[in-house]
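Practice problem 4.
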């Protein structure tokens, strides 16, 4: 369970969970943290993305991924194709603090995690895990059999998160794919079999 205040709204009319209050963050420990931390303790809502979120989703994606952020037109089309598995963290004040996007094949048997990001001021509160657990549960309910994703081999925190959720390297070569996104942009491919067992508890 995350220490971050979090609610969930999907097809339901009310919150599914509401954990206790988060510890007050130390602005000095987070270089980009705003002086006013009031928004850092506001409850977040984990919900399905809406079309009206697209401008804010583009801002969020650019903030998190910078030079490798999705172009606006592509983000729009990804939403049109995969809205059911496009989840966001809404702070209730007009800003999104995180998202996860899963894309599925035409027959719905296989899926890829196409994006997972949380703003710098909300990291290390377990929110990336919350997003992943929810989208994996949705994929399983939709009948998806396996999920793949790519991760930068040196991103130890991300690798540990995905391994804790049951992902493992897709062989050969431990899942390592040299120049996967272009020269010098190596990636490791991880895979999770959704037919094996339920997603680990939060």
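Answer key:
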């Amino acid at each position: 369970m995350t220490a971050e205040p979090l609610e969930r709204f999907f097809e339901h009319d009310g919150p599914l969970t509401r954990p206790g209050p988060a510890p007050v963050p130390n602005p000095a420990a987070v270089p980009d943290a705003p002086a006013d931390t009031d928004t850092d303790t506001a409850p977040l809502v984990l919900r399905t993305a809406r079309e009206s979120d697209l401008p804010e989703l583009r801002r969020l994606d650019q903030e998190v991924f910078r030079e490798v952020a999705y172009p606006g037109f592509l983000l729009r089309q990804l939403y049109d194709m995969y809205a059911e598995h496009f989840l966001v963290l809404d702070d209730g004040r007009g800003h999104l603090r995180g998202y996860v996007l899963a894309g599925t094949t035409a027959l719905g048997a296989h899926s890829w995690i196409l994006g997972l990001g949380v703003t710098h001021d909300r990291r290390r509160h377990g929110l990336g895990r919350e997003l992943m657990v929810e989208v994996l549960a949705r994929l399983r309910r939709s009948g998806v059999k396996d999920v793949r994703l790519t991760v930068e081999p040196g991103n130890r925190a991300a690798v540990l998160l995905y391994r804790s959720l049951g992902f493992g390297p897709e062989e050969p070569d431990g899942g390592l794919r040299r120049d996967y996104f272009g020269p010098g942009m190596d990636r490791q491919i991880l895979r999770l079999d959704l037919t094996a067992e339920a997603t680990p508890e939060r």
